[in-house]
Automatic annotation (TrEMBL):
GO biological process: SCF-dependent proteasomal ubiquitin-dependent protein catabolic process
UniProt biased composition (Low complexity): 72-104, 131-160
Name of the protein this chain belongs to: RNI-like protein
Chain positions covered by the region annotation Disordered: 1-197, 241-261
Basic residues bias (residue ranges): 249-258
Length: 650
């Protein structure tokens, strides 16, 4: 509003504040209403009430302030008298604002008198203590005076309406008061903490074990000599000292929380994230630049898993400086691209080709002529290479070949095996896996390789003779470091007692997976008092269904101080008591107890404490191992039935 009022006169700035004024300020200035004198502070509640004073008026006779002492006449009230402040405002233009403070209103039915003051009386006519307190902060005197005048005039004009129904409190009322006629402590000073309802339960802490427990209503707790309360568990232990206190159950962890912790433990590094991003856009990469061989191998594994290794991406991994080359999925690589490996990397010493179904005789012949430094060759699935090509390759490579691994071949036969044994006498590692024509005729040629350090015979199509296998161990047993006989169902216990025990003193890794003819007696005869051997690092007896607790005891007794990897999968004859020797394997890193149903939570907790280096336990089919089994950071539990990882939340 501007500086002029409705009549065109300039307003008087009472507070020496220049600027726009509100409608209320202009109204008060027109009526000549000024700010009242500051009222004195009320006396404390516990102080003696002051003597009543005569009403005093302001300079212009606008407001009158008075303190009234109202005392309860009834002895049953029992409350001390409290001072009550009543502020009455009057205007020179209204005669109703100049009433005497001692005058009582004639209207008894109304809850308020004519000037807005509260009146209190009970039905018996007894006067009780009256406490009036404003719940709003004090506003300026001018506004309060105007509000009081307005409410007074409204009260006089609506006296009849107030008799019919009580006046409702609205948010816009300036006189917002709270009445307390009970004579007790105000509600604002009340606290539920200081009140204990009768007949309610009570929570206490045991003075002995400091456990929290509840004392039910109406019961008297047991106390000790010092007066402290005891929980029911301590009371029972005191009554029967022989009874041990029950261990508290471990806190139940939500399954989703367990999954989250498992995922957080496997957070990839920044280097791995960059490698994954490069592998994702491998089609757009022109060159890797100067990166390490380890990083390049990781990229190769990722793109091979995604079947992204093709003729276009293959040159990215070919460098003349590379000596060891491995490609884990050559399904999309043509024979010409496979042949280019020898052109780009002529100094290769070790070449590994997995799922190389498109390699042919021409590629093998090209490798034999151009890879002059080749010492190790590993092929998986070379279906097109013929027997003649293998024989030609072995003649060309000759005695420099030290490692030959062949898996899933249908054309490698006795003539190729004869060529290998004849032209490659310095062979140190030989793997024959899933070869369709493997039979007893091959074993005498294998026995001619007396310098073998690693021998693997996996999934032969025909039964192999135990005596011929003993001949191989007699020829190469003194040099063997690793022996794998997987799914050789025809081998008997003599392979262990007469062959491995007597002829392989330097053996470090032994795999006898799915050799169903082997018994517990054969395992016991192998490991009992085997003084020639210092201990195995790896033992795999998975699928040997004839083994029992005594066999495991013999394995642990000889290898506990050195054993790092143990596979007991499908050895379901083992019991909970028979698995306890595992606690002596302090250096164990990997354990497979799948389908060993006696493995449970208690044994897992004890094993974690006994083997601090344990980082992976495989437990497929072990229904007694729950989601509440003990674990620790860095330990991976694979195959637990309670674990269900929803890929949508990854």
């Amino acid at each position: 509003m501007s500086g002029r009022n409705r009549r065109g006169n300039t307003n008087t700035y009472v507070n020496n504040v220049r600027g726009p004024t509100s409608a209320l300020t202009s109204f008060l200035n027109e009526r000549g209403i000024r700010r009242a004198n500051p009222a004195p502070r009320p006396a404390p509640a516990d102080a003696d009430p002051p003597a009543p004073e005569s009403p005093t008026a302001g300079e212009n006779g606008d407001t009158i302030e008075q303190e009234i002492q109202v005392e309860a006449s009834s002895s049953s009230a029992g409350a001390a008298s409290r001072p009550v402040r009543v502020t009455r405002a009057s205007s020179s233009a209204s005669s109703s604002m100049t009433k005497s403070p001692s005058k009582q209103p004639s209207d008894e039915d109304s809850g308020e008198d004519s000037d807005g003051s509260a009146k209190n009386s009970n039905k018996n006519g007894k006067v009780v203590s009256l406490s009036i307190a404003s719940s709003r902060p004090r506003r300026n005197a001018a506004a309060s005076s105007s509000s009081a005048a307005t409410s007074s005039s409204k009260a006089e004009s609506s006296a009849d309406a107030s008799k019919k129904r009580p006046r409702k409190k609205v948010e816009s009322d300036d006189s917002d008061f709270e009445l307390d006629i009970s004579g007790s402590t105000p509600r604002s000073r009340f606290s539920h903490k200081g009140r204990t309802p009768l007949g309610s339960n009570k929570i206490e802490f045991c003075s002995r074990c400091r456990a929290r427990f509840t004392i039910k209503a109406g019961t008297i707790p047991t106390t000790d000599d010092s007066g402290g309360v005891l929980c029911p568990t301590c009371v029972a232990a005191e009554a029967d000292p022989s009874a041990s206190m029950s261990k508290p159950k471990p806190a139940k962890k939500p399954r989703r929380k367990v999954q989250k912790q498992e995922i957080e433990r496997n957070i990839p590094t920044l280097q791995d994230l960059c490698i994954q991003k490069i592998a994702e856009y491998i089609e757009d990469v022109e060159a890797f630049g100067d990166i390490s061989d380890i990083s390049m191998d990781k990229i190769c594994k990722i793109i091979c898993r995604n079947r992204s290794l093709s003729n276009k991406t293959l040159p990215l991994f070919l460098d003349p400086r590379h000596l060891d080359v491995s490609f884990y999925d050559c399904t999309e690589i043509s024979p010409e691209a496979l042949q280019s490996i020898a052109s780009f990397c002529p100094d290769i010493r070790s070449l590994r080709l997995t799922y190389c179904g498109r390699i042919n005789d021409d590629v093998i012949s090209y490798y034999a002529k151009h890879l002059t430094q080749l010492k190790a060759l590993s092929l998986t699935g070379p279906f097109l290479v013929t027997d003649a090509a293998y024989a030609s390759f072995f003649r060309e490579v000759g005695s420099r070949l030290e490692q030959f691994d062949l898996d899933h071949s249908a054309r490698f036969n006795i003539s190729a095996m004869e060529s290998l044994a004849t032209h490659c006498p310095h062979l140190k590692q030989l793997t024959l896996g899933d070869c369709m024509h493997l039979n007893d005729d091959w074993l005498p040629w294998v026995a001619k390789l007396s310098k073998l350090e690693s021998l693997t015979i996996r999934n032969p199509e025909h039964d192999l003779s135990t005596d011929l296998m003993l001949d191989i161990l007699k020829a190469a047993g003194s040099n063997l470091r690793s022996l794998e006989l997987t799914n050789c169902t025809s081998f008997e216990d003599r392979v262990l007692s007469e062959g491995v025990r007597e002829l392989c003193p330097n053996l470090q890794r032994l795999t006898l997976a799915s050799c169903e003819e082997l018994t517990s007696e054969g395992i016991i005869s192998l490991f009992t008092d085997w003084k020639a051997n210092s201990g195995l690092l790896h033992v795999d007896v998975s699928g040997c269904v004839g083994l029992d607790d005594k066999a495991l005891e013999a394995i642990v007794s000889h290898n506990a101080h050195a054993l790092e990897t143990l596979n007991l999968s499908n050895v379901d004859e083992l019991t909970s008591e028979g698995l306890k020797p595992l606690l002596r394997c302090a250096y164990l890193k990997r354990l497979d107890v799948s389908w060993v149903r006696a493995f449970d939570d208690e044994l897992m907790g004890a094993l974690i404490k006994a083997a601090p280096k344990l980082n992976q336990v495989t437990v497929w089919g072990d229904h007694r191992l729950t989601e509440y089994c003990p674990t620790r950071p860095g330990l991976r539990i694979v195959g637990r039935e309670a674990d269900y990882i929803d890929l949508r939340f990854k």
